[in-house]
Write a structure and sequence with these properties.
121 residues, alpha+beta, Beta-Lactamase, five-stranded antiparallel sheet, 35% helix
Length: 121
């Protein structure tokens, strides 16, 4: 896990990255730059975001494993949440904060997809 987090932090524009268990609200691992947000607080509140979206999908008749990610766009940052249910890590998600002025959102999404493939908690 730590190796995956370190690799993701090396991506241009990434301010912080964490792995969160949304069942228990536990922060399983995190690494970030001092300029990034408090990843422990983010783990708590973003758990609510994931739970709300999964509930909405269920209400609409969608399978939860169809969700690839949730993107929150701020004036100077992107917050990207990627549930890992597709690779057998149900209840776990990546949380990545990117500096909007220099981040490549598409490349980051592709790297998260690749990181998910070999990731195991």
């Amino acid at each position: 896990m730590n190796e995956t987090l370190r690799d993701l932090l090396k991506v241009d524009g990434v301010l912080g990255v964490s792995v969160v268990d949304y069942y228990s609200r536990l922060l399983l691992g995190a690494i970030g730059h001092p300029a990034g947000p408090d990843l422990e607080k983010a783990a708590l509140v973003d758990t609510d975001v994931v739970r709300a979206k999964l509930s909405a999908l269920e209400t609409l008749g969608y399978r939860p494993d169809r969700m690839e990610d949730i993107l929150i766009t701020l004036d100077d940052e992107y917050h990207l949440i990627r549930p890992l249910s597709r690779c057998g890590n149900d209840g776990i998600f990546f949380y990545v904060v990117l500096d909007r002025s220099c981040a490549d959102l598409l490349a980051t999404r592709q790297l998260l997809r690749a990181a998910e493939e070999g990731f195991d908690v």
